[in-house]
Specification:
Layout lengths: L7 H13 L2 H8 L3 H15 L4 E3 L4 E3 L1 H28 L3 E6 L1 H18 L4 E6 L13 E6 L6 E14 L2 H4 L16 E4 L5 H7 L12 E2 L2 H9 L4 E5 H9 L11 E12 L6 H23 L1
Helix pairs in contact: 1-2, 1-3, 1-4, 2-3, 5-9
Length: 302
């Protein structure tokens, strides 16, 4: 037998009041007056022909009937929310959100990103620079590019680029009073530090540099800031190769020494292994791997 359902508004008000056990708090949550909440509850009770709340002078309690109804109302709204989200996700299947380290975004990805946008005008692309780890379950992120070991539990991991570390500086320093002829000449210059990536002590030890204090010099929390400071001629940065190749090619930076330290980390494209890749994700994965391959072929020719 089919039964009429009460108005959805009355159920929404009941849900808010039942969880807070306060018409006042429910009114605040729903942005209506307390009188409106009271009216909706009375309307629902009349429809059901059953009291839902025990009203005291300063207290509010659910009746047995109200307690019985609440989990069903909660479940109903949860199902409705899931259905709405499913429709929205289907409508936005051509959206793509990629999170990436700010340094890699500004120095490597953004200069190339216009090519992807032009090739895929139907994809609504969003770039979300972040230094933090991505929680795919809580955040609306499709893909992440991270600098690390590549071993991430629960994630597909696609290797993109290896990394090496070496000093870079502005051509102005090489033309100045203390050009960098050998590693010990670094004692005449400010060392620019990149927090968390690159260790001047290790490089100076490998280069057998004498008289250079690796503890001095400004520390930048983002690699791109250290690189930009080097471009401005503020000092010598220990940089990641993928972030400075373009600047070296354009003559904004020079690599004064041949001593290079391979990094134990690399760049990886990651996404949850329980999440099927959308067409937009597949398009970006194919495009970025093409960019990496083209760069590798160019370096092999040069």
């Amino acid at each position: 037998m089919n039964h009429k359902l009460p108005p959805l508004t009355t159920l929404r008000v009941f849900k808010a009041a039942a969880h807070s056990l306060s018409f006042t708090e429910a009114a605040k949550e729903l942005n209506v007056t307390q009188a409106a909440v009271s009216h909706q509850i009375k309307s629902l009770e009349t429809f059901l022909d059953h009291p839902l709340f025990k009203r005291g002078n300063r207290s509010l309690e659910l009746t047995p009937g109200g307690s019985k109804l609440l989990p069903y109302v909660d479940q109903a709204f949860s199902v409705l929310q899931s259905g709405i989200e499913a429709i929205m996700e289907d409508e936005n299947k051509n959206t793509l959100t990629v999170t990436v380290l700010p340094s890699f975004a500004s120095r490597w990805l953004v200069p190339r990103l216009g090519l992807f946008i032009k090739a895929h005008p139907d994809i609504d692309f969003r770039l979300a620079p972040s230094r933090g780890l991505t929680n795919f379950k809580r955040e609306k992120i499709d893909l992440a590019i991270r600098y690390g070991s590549g071993q991430y539990t629960g994630l597909h991991s696609i290797h993109l680029l290896d990394e090496s570390i070496y000093p870079v500086c502005s051509p102005k320093i090489m033309a100045g009073p203390h050009p960098l002829s050998c590693s010990s000449d670094l004692k005449h210059h400010v060392l620019l530090h990149d927090e968390g990536h690159g260790d001047w002590r290790k490089w100076l030890l490998a280069a057998k540099a004498d008289g250079v204090d690796a503890s001095k010099g400004p520390v930048y929390t983002d690699s791109s800031m250290a690189v930009q400071s080097a471009i401005e001629g503020d000092g010598v940065a220990l940089a990641r190769s993928q972030l400075v190749k373009s600047d070296i090619h354009r003559g904004l930076l020079v690599k004064p020494f041949d001593i290079v330290q391979p990094s134990r980390f690399a760049y990886y494209l990651v996404y949850p292994d329980d999440q099927p890749a959308t067409l937009a994700m597949l398009a970006f994965m194919e495009w970025i791997q093409e960019q990496v391959n083209e760069e590798s072929q160019y370096e092999d020719r040069t």
